[in-house]
Structure formats: structure tokens, C-alpha cells
Amino acid sequence: MSTPVHSRPINERIDWLMELSRNHSAGFCSPENHLARQRYLAEHNTLIIAMKCMDGRIHLPHVTRTPLGIIQPFRNLGGIFDLGWPYLGDLLADTVQNAVSAGRRVLIIITYHYSRGATERGCAGFNCDRDAAMAHAFGIRRQVETLFGRGHQTVYPLVCGFETDEDALVLHGPNDQYLDLSTIPLSATDETDSKIAALYPDMPGAVQRDLLPLVRGNIQHIAEIRKSDRELNIEHREWVICVGRGFDFLHAPNLALIVGPYSPDLAHPIRQAAGIIRANMESGRIPDDGFLLLSSAPYKEPGTQKARATLKSAFLLEFAANVIEQDFPELAERMVTRSAILNWPERRLEVQSAKPKPEHGNRVS
User: Fold this and answer.
1) At what angle do helices 267-282 and 304-327 cross, to 10 degrees?
2) Measuring CA to CA, which residue among 109, 119, 353, 347 is closest to residue 250?
3) Side by side, which strands form the sheet with 256-259?
4) What pLDDT digit, counting tens, does each position of 201-215 carry?
5) Which of 123, 215, 217, 332 lies at a CB distance of 3.0 to 4.6 Å from 325, suitable for a disulfide?
6) What pLDDT is attached to residue 353?
7) Closest listed residue to residue 358, CA positions, set 337, 328, 329, 330
8) Helices marked H in 75-204
9) 45-227 is classed in which CATH architecture?
10) The organism sits in which domain of life (predicted)?
11) Which residues of 215-244 are buried (b: 16+ CB within 10 A; e: fewer)?
12) For residue 291, what are the β-bridge partners?
């Protein structure tokens, strides 16, 4: 039996991670997946945005059987967002405006996650408190309505619970109504049209039509999960801190802690992530020979966009490294750093700096 990835030496772990990113890009760019995305978008024009936690279990394309590249993710530690944050608010507004200018409606799925079988498998960002995580999601929903209107005819905010034991979605409607997809048998999948229409009477018909494939896909996925025998009691063993955007390939449980570049106070979530890494080392859940600090910024076009992404990624790496050095000096001695940019059309991670970790523990920059 091969050694689990989280138990391997740091350089082997990093090599494995880079291979994971290459495989993700290759799959995304394959002719079959490319054509599947084109066909899907021709049939389902709504832009779908997902605001979600960095937890690798929260993989909406996988659990809804949606082609990669259809759901646009916003990921952050704990799924904690505030649309008052200048960068986040501007980015979301620009994303929506671009979609509307192209004649598309927008569905914003605001997620929280929990475990039905064990509270401690819930969201660490909210101390595994499902009610607190749900309340935060509804708070974001109200902010979306403030930003884009309460009529919901162009931008529809949808709060969605994610039950991680069965990968089941829980769709929340008005007046405390909800639809738990784990309660719908596979044989009743065709009845979901009327259930969605009843739960969301103000949702435009085109958005309902484009939500239904996700609902049906999740019901099918849940049925498959119930036939499998997968591990649920997974310990925290993260060994990567990611800062920035462009980490779609990181959908493995308890692998990485992702800090989106959204909050004006980036230092706080970076400290939280570093504290988790230190605890993982001290408990022996991961080797104490090193951890990876990885920054990334996406770009769509060469030239100025690519140069800007390079500068942004380098800044995020230096900023995060300085926070860790100041607050966790002993941990910083075990830090390996990588700055990368992401070719967005191909989802290809391009490492800008990749110096080897020194044998005697000095930080690499």
C-alpha cells in the first residue's frame, strides 16, 4: 500500500500537488469536456456563482454532476464573506455586470456546510456551529439583495446547505422553508420541477430551468454515495496555505486552507491558517518537515493582464510570508513558498518561483 500523501516528505507532497494541478488543467481542456461545457452553456444560459468555504469537500461541480467551468467559485476560509469588502464587492459587481451585458441572468449560490453524523465534522470557520454558519449565509443573501435588488428577476441569491456526509444539498426558500435533496428518492427525480417551483415562486423560469440540472445531478450523486463505503471521520491534516484565487484543482478533503484575497484584513485569516498548520504538526497529523505557502492570481489574456497577475501573486506571497514570520517564527522556518499565476482559459497553474526547501529550515522566498 502506498504512503498517504499527507505523510510523505514535503518535497514529494509538493510534487504530488503540482501533478494534481496539471491533471486538472488537462481534464478541463480535453475535447470532451470543452464540448460538454459549450453544449451545457447553449442549453443553460444562467451564470452560476458559488460562494463557499475553502473545505475541499465542498465541490459543487462534482456533487451536482455539472461540467467543470460552469459554476464560478468564490472561496474563502469558513465561507466568510462581506460584500462591503471593496475588492470582493467590485469583483462580484463586475462579474454580474459582464453576465447581464451578455444577456444572462445570474444565480448566486451562497453555501454553508455541516455534518449530519458528527458536529465536529462541520465547518471549522464557525467552530462547527451549523446555526452560525447558516445565519452568516443568510446575511450574505441580504447583502446580495441590497446590491442587486430584491425583485430577483436578474440576480437570484440562493442559500444552500451542504451536508458533507452524503454530499447532499439543502435548498433554503422563504419563511423557513427548505428542500433537503437527501430526502428525495432517485425514483422521484422527475418530481423536482414542481418542488423547485413551489419553493421559489419568485425565481424566473429560465433560472429554475438552469437550477434543475444541479438538483437532479445531486440526487443521483447522493444515491451513488449511499452505495459506497467512504471514510467520514477524516482528521484535519492540511499542509498547504493558499492565498489568492485560482485553486479549483484543490478539491481533496483536509489538504489546503484557502484564503481568498477579498477581506481588507488578510492577516487575520492567514494567522488562523498558520495556527491550524502548526497544530497539525504538533499533533503528528502531518510531518513537521515543512508546509507549503502557495499564492496565485488568475489572468485571461497575455500582456498587461498576465503581468498584473504576476505582480499580484508575488505581493500576496510576500505579505502572507511576512505575517507568518512575525507571528509564527518557528513555523516559518519550515515554510516552502511558491508564487503562481493561473491561465484562466486553460485553468493552467504556472509557477513563477519554485526554489527548493533548504535542508536546515531557512525560509524560502
Assistant:
1) 60
2) 347
3) 256-259, 240-244, 291-299, 335-343, 348-353
4) 999 999 999 999 999
5) 332
6) 61
7) 337
8) 86-101, 130-148, 192-199
9) 3-Layer(aba) Sandwich (3.40)
10) Bacteria
11) bbbbbebbbebeeeeeeeeeebbbbbbbbb
12) 335
Neighbours of 129 (CB within 10 A): 15
Angle CA(268)–CA(337)–CA(350) in degrees, nearest 5?
A: 110
Cα end-to-end distance, the chain, whole Å: 35
In whole angstroms, give the CA distance from residue 291 to residue 333.
Answer: 10
Distance separating alpha carbons of residues 349 and 19, to the nearest angstrom = 10
pLDDT in tens, 178-192: 999 999 999 999 889
User: Cα–Cα distance between 363 and 336 in angstroms, integer?
Assistant: 7
Hunting for cell 514535503 — which residue is that? 10
* CATH number of the 1-33+234-365 domain: 3.30.1330.140
d(CA 333, CA 364): 9
Q: How many residues does the chain have?
A: 365
pTM of the model: 0.88
Spatial distance between the Cα atoms of 66 and 194, rounded to a whole number of angstroms: 21
